[in-house]
Design brief:
single chain; 199 residues; alpha/beta; five-stranded parallel beta sheet; globular
């Protein structure tokens, strides 16, 4: 039977999707981002709890990264400080390369409605990427199941338990929360909206 794979970063959005839709397999990418160890640890814990097959892919792209995720200054054309050029396209492509050998037919990504400030985070981008991937051997499709939901709406819809959600690592700058980046700010803002203590 064809399988569905989730690109599981270990952040709130992908954890909520893992709980909600239960993919057969999850892929986590260590591509040279500064918080890779914490992201892998969070994703591994979630997959163990949900009994989802988990594969960690390591492809060091740190030499060609920019922005908070790489530990470097963002490029002048970056819409936000956490922008890494073509990052989502790279992650889905690498995931797809591994997914075909696992019998995967569809890749899920964790982008949500408020990710559209990056051109590679919106619905139009994923539709184009899916057309590109599906036109090649293997016919993989790419879907962003929560693209019309905010993170708070997604968490409520998924009914992910607080104890699972608290595994999330959202910091862009460190393996321990810096409390001063867009990822940390989003994490604590969402917890406040949900009435969950982040202590």
């Amino acid at each position: 039977m064809p399988k569905r794979a989730l690109l599981l970063s270990g952040g709130m959005d992908s954890i909520a999707i893992a709980y909600w839709l239960r993919p057969e397999i999850a892929f986590t990418l260590n591509y040279g981002q500064v918080a890779a160890d914490a992201e892998v640890a969070a994703a591994s814990a979630v997959c163990t709890a949900l009994e989802i097959e988990h594969q960690v892919l390591t492809v060091d792209c740190s030499d060609i990264g920019s922005g908070d995720l790489s530990g470097r200054d963002a490029l002048d054309l970056a819409p936000k400080s956490d922008w890494w050029p073509f990052r989502n396209q790279m992650l889905v492509t690498l995931c797809g390369m591994a997914a075909l050998s696992k019998g995967v037919s569809e890749i899920w990504v964790g982008s949500v409605k408020n990710d559209g400030y990056h051109k590679d985070g919106g619905e139009d981008f994923y539709q184009l990427l899916s057309q590109l991937m599906s036109s090649q051997e293997g016919g993989l499709t790419v879907t962003a199941p929560a693209i019309h939901l905010t993170t708070t709406e997604l968490i409520k819809k998924s009914a992910v338990p607080d104890e699972l959600l608290m595994w999330a690592h959202s910091c862009h700058k460190s393996n321990t929360p810096c409390c001063n980046c867009r990822g940390c700010n989003k994490y604590f803002s969402v917890l406040a909206e949900l009435g969950i203590s982040g202590d």
